[in-house]
Design brief:
By secondary structure, the protein is of the alpha/beta class. The chain has two domains: 167 residues, Rossmann fold (3-Layer(aba) Sandwich), CATH 3.40.50; 120 residues. Helix content is 26%, strand content 35%. It has eight helices and 15 strands. The strands form three sheets. Strands 9-10-11-12-13-14-15 form a seven-stranded antiparallel β-sheet, with no helix packed on it. Strands 3-2-1-4-5-6 form a six-stranded parallel β-sheet, sandwiched between helices. Strands 7-8 form a two-stranded antiparallel ribbon. A hairpin with a 4-residue loop joins β7 and β8. α2 crosses α4 and α4 packs across α5. The N terminus and C terminus are likely disordered.
Length: 353
């Protein structure tokens, strides 16, 4: 059965609440309540309960709670499949961070189960750490919105999966002007791909829905990135020769690269083709495939009797992530020699010792 929110309550989620080092979180909750908003604080980590503190906690070590969270993830996988797929895409995150993100996904599902039928309409999370991922998953399962407050540490020290968190949040609050500019620069880095015309225009804001959500739209225009090069030469004894090359670093607009190179002449004929993919099938695996064919002709006498030497090679390189060395390399190569009829007797023999 779908999880639905009914009333107009807001959940304020932080890593630990209350916290002596973050007293301003309590001030924010109090200010929201004075504005007439029903706010319920939640804590990711367990806290000491007393008469004045009855904060609910997300984390638990009871096995049945984890099994229930896993079950709801399976049942509602269509709502979070984009988030799960993003965990295994190309990015700077380590495998340890990706495994922890899977665990945080279960915590998000547990939060959704705890908030079910409580009329929650919005989740706000303080900091962009694990709480942001938990809030994002819970909001997706509850089909409600969520927002984030970011500090400098969220951007400079722990920016793990910050792109997907910003992608799914309704609004982000940056504590300082520096943080705001940092977020803007992160979007401007798209221009550094050299696939779009620069400078990029200012983003547009458009209202989305009737709950105060805003879409930030960046309009980019793809520019021509491929190039063709060619040349020719004429030499005494070698005749006409030249080369033709084609290079496309953004094939089909998907950041895949294709290169073709053909060099021809009287005694030389080379062809090379290379295709590289930085994220094969939207995964963290990158690969490069190359194929080459080389034909050389050697004159063996003034009568222009020729010996043809043909070599072809096929290579494949695979790697995971930008910080991982190559995990698989294979290469096939073969060479064949073709001589005119009757010329084999005149071919000198070489003996290896």
């Amino acid at each position: 059965m779908p999880i639905q929110a009914k009333n107009r309550d807001v959940i304020y989620l932080s890593n630990r609440f209350p916290s002596a080092v973050e007293p301003y979180v309590s001030d924010e909750v109090g200010e929201l309540r004075r504005c007439g908003i029903t706010v319920t604080p939640w804590s990711v980590w367990p806290v000491e309960h007393n008469a004045s503190n009855k904060t609910d906690t997300v984390l638990t070590w009871r096995p049945w709670a984890w099994l229930s969270a896993l079950l709801i993830c399976v049942q509602r996988r269509q709502d979070i499949q984009g988030i799960i797929r993003h965990i295994f895409r190309v990015g700077p995150e380590s495998w340890g961070q990706r495994l922890r993100a899977l665990g945080h996904t279960l915590l998000g599902a547990r939060l959704a189960l705890l908030l079910r039928n409580k009329g929650v309409r919005h989740i706000h999370v303080h900091h962009g750490y694990l709480g942001a991922w938990i809030a994002m998953v819970a909001a997706r399962l509850l089909r409600i919105s969520y927002s984030i407050t970011l500090h400098g540490s969220d951007l400079l020290l722990r920016p793990t999966f910050l792109d997907v968190k910003l992608q799914h949040c309704a609004i982000c609050f940056a504590v300082s002007e520096f943080n705001r500019n940092y977020l803007i620069r992160s979007y401007q880095n798209i221009g550094n791909l050299n696939f779009f015309e620069t400078p990029m225009p200012a983003p547009e804001t458009r209202p989305s829905g009737d709950q105060g959500d805003v879409d930030i739209v960046f309009n980019v225009k793809e520019k021509r990135t491929g190039n063709v090069n060619f040349g020719a030469s004429m030499g005494q004894g070698t005749g006409l020769g030249g080369f033709i090359g084609l290079d496309q670093p953004n094939l089909l607009g998907r950041c895949k690269r294709a290169q073709l190179q053909w060099q021809f002449g009287r005694y030389l004929n080379d062809f090379n083709a290379t295709y590289s993919d930085p994220n094969i099938r939207q995964s963290r695996i990158s690969g490069s495939f190359s194929w080459s064919l080389s034909t050389q002709s050697h004159a063996r006498s003034p009568a222009e009797t020729k010996m043809h030497l043909m070599t072809w090679a096929l290579s494949c390189d695979l790697s995971i992530g930008s910080e991982t060395s190559c995990i698989a390399t294979s290469q096939l190569c073969t060479t064949s020699v073709r001589t005119p009829p009757g010329a084999l007797e005149a071919t000198p023999r070489f003996i290896a010792r």
